Amino acid sequence: MKTLTIDLGARSYPIYIGTGLLSRRDLFTPHIGGEQVMVVTNDVVGPLYLERLLATLGLPDEAALVLPDGERHKTLETVNRIFDALLERRYSRNATLVALGGGVIGDIVGFAAACYQRGIDFIQVPTTLLAQVDSSVGGKTGVNHPLGKNMIGAFHQPRAVIADIATLDTLPERELQAGIAEVIKYGLIRDAPFFTWLEDHIEALRRRDPDALTYAVERSCRNKAEVVAADEREGGLRAILNFGHTFGHAIEAGMGYGRYLHGEAVAIGMCQAADLSARLGLLPRRDVQRIESLLARAGLPTTPPAAMDGAAFLRHMAVDKKNRDGQIRLILLEEIGRATLPRPVPRESLEATLHEYGRSGA
Ligand SMILES: NC(=O)c1ccc[n+]([C@@H]2O[C@H](COP(=O)([O-])OP(=O)(O)OC[C@H]3O[C@@H](n4cnc5c(N)ncnc54)[C@H](O)[C@@H]3O)[C@@H](O)[C@H]2O)c1
Ligand SMILES: O=C(O)C(=O)C[C@@H](O)[C@H](O)[C@H](O)COP(=O)(O)O
Ligand SMILES: [Zn+2]
Questions:
Q1: Does ligand 1 have an atom closer than 6 angstroms to the CB of 167?
Q2: How many angstroms separate the alpha carbon of residue 44 from the centre of ligand 1?
Q3: Fewest C-beta atoms under 10 Å: which of 10, 18, 150, 324?
Q4: What is the C-alpha separation between 144 and 315, in angstroms, rounded?
Q5: Whole-angstrom distance between the N-terminal and C-terminal Cα of the chain?
Q6: What is the 138 CA–ligand 2 centroid distance (Å)?
Q7: What is the ipTM of this complex?
Q8: 350 is in an annotated binding site
Q9: Annotated binding residue at 34?
Q10: Would you tell me how many other CB atoms lie within 10 Å of the CB of residue 79?
Q11: Is any atom of ligand 2 closer than 6 Å to the C-beta of 136?
Q12: Is-contact 128 102, C-beta < 8 A?
């Protein structure tokens, strides 16, 4: 097992990465403050891993809450179901929530923990590659609004992240690929040697080679932890973690939540952001091809759906959280391994990228 620490100055918390961790009670107990614990999961992950986790924690079935699966349930209504359960079961301020699942469960449960009685503890137990490399770390929590992705949320850090790589054995291939998109993102924004490593090991990752997976999770978490430690609330540097997301979130909201997986939408968005970077003379065109080629080898889409024309993109990008004074700002690449901070871009260049991808779209 590897242990990383995310250091936020006044606070820090561990990220445990390894196999068999769902059975390691000793990893959980130091991060549970009181006697009341609720494990929140969904109806896909629950049947796979809930019984084992409850046994590890010595909890009865009544300590669990099973929510419906899917991005379309990442809503305030679902968060309210957690509040209902906490209140009906008389959970106090020193209770701990345990989020068992992918990024959707982690974001929902984290947000419920941020709000219930003005904030209770929670532990992230991520079971998708995407959640293990990205969403479980860093404290962004929240839910979607029909008009915009993750529009209602809070920063609320978990007490610990416990990433059991063995849970990835049951992950559907499409979900694994979606997670690889966020892994590739770290190579693009701040870790060129990791990008090269990914070019050499993408097939090993896709066939779930345990060493390759463990290495990718650890290196991704290390990158994320360093960025979040430097800028917890996205005053500056943290925005680079949003590379490709301005386009990607537009696809998720525009197509209807759940039609495109988050990682798929981000993969397309990273191609668009790379193209725009080249148009603006920041990134060599050959690097755009290198990026598209690696994403395609990962089994990811690289062009947007035909239904997302330029106008649809611009409508959704108009509510991006990085906008200032109503102006769209984008993260660009100066080279593979070096991202810019968010910056306004000339409208005609943005429209040229949207037009180019509109023409090639599936
Ligand atoms: N908070 C953050 O910093 C952050 C970062 C990246 C993404 N996100 C959010 O994360 C979400 C995407 O997360 P995701 O890709 O994990 O999707 P997800 O949570 O929907 O999980 C994907 C699917 O896999 C299932 N699943 C989970 N673990 C499984 C397992 N071990 N075996 C079999 N099936 C399993 C889930 O039930 C679901 O059907 C998006 O809402 C995105 O906005 C948040
Ligand atoms: O942790 C971050 O910061 C990120 O931006 C990570 C992203 O991969 C993630 O999708 C995040 O949820 C996006 O946040 P948002 O603020 O753009 O909603
Ligand atoms: Zn993301």
A1: yes
A2: 11
A3: 10
A4: 16
A5: 42
A6: 9
A7: 0.99
A8: no
A9: no
A10: 23
A11: no
A12: yes
Active-site residues: which are they?
Answer: 118, 140, 182, 224, 234, 238, 242, 245, 249, 262
167 annotated ligand binder: yes
Tell me the percentage of the chain whose pLDDT exceeds 70. 99
Assign 181 a pLDDT band (cuts: 50, 70, 90).
Answer: very high
The predicted-structure confidence for 184-206, as pLDDT tens digits, reads as follows 999 999 999 999 999 999 999 99
For domain 2-170, give the CATH number: 3.40.50.1970
Chosen CATH of 173-360 out of 3.30.110.10, 1.20.1090.10, 2.40.50.140, 3.80.10.10 = 1.20.1090.10
Q: Give pLDDT tens digits for 216-262.
A: 999 999 999 999 999 999 999 999 999 999 999 999 999 999 999 99
Q: How far is the CA of 217 from the centre of ligand 2 (A)?
A: 17
* Distance of alpha carbon 41 from alpha carbon 49, whole angstroms: 9
Domain residue spans in the chain?
Answer: 2-170, 173-360
- Residue 133: closest CA among 79, 177, 70, 75: 177
Q: Is the CB of 321 under 6 A from ligand 2?
A: yes
